[in-house]
Amino acid sequence: MRVLLGTTNPSKVKRFSDLLKGYDIEFITLRDIEVIEEPKERIILYD
């Protein structure tokens, strides 16, 4: 199974890989499918 992680952060990919070690899962990232534009992140602060 291939799972797309919506990130380009290698640390996040490693975290998921470590958590699901032993399962037949290949993690791919946005770079793997040639998405190079970074999404704009909105920060919402709640008081």
Notes on the protein architecture:
With 47 residues, the protein is an alpha+beta fold. It has one domain. It is built from 1 helix and 2 strands. The chain has one helix at 10-19; strands at residues 2-5, 26-29. A two-stranded parallel sheet has the order 1-2. β1 (2-5), α1 (10-19) and β2 form a beta-alpha-beta unit. It starts with a strand and ends in an 18-residue tail after the last strand. The model has no long low-confidence stretch (mean pLDDT 87).
Number of strand segments: 2
Q: What is the approximate shape?
A: flat
Point out poorly predicted stretches.
none
Domain count, please report it.
1
Structural class: alpha+beta
Q: Residue-averaged pLDDT, rounded?
A: 87
Query: What is the subunit organization of this protein?
Result: single chain
Strand content: 15-25%
Which properties best describe this structure?
single chain, 47 residues, alpha+beta, 1 helix, 21% helix
List the helices and strands and how they pair.
Layout: E1 2-5, H1 10-19, E2 26-29
Parallel strand pairs: 1-2
Q: What's the quick description here?
A:
The protein has about 45 residues and is of the alpha+beta class.
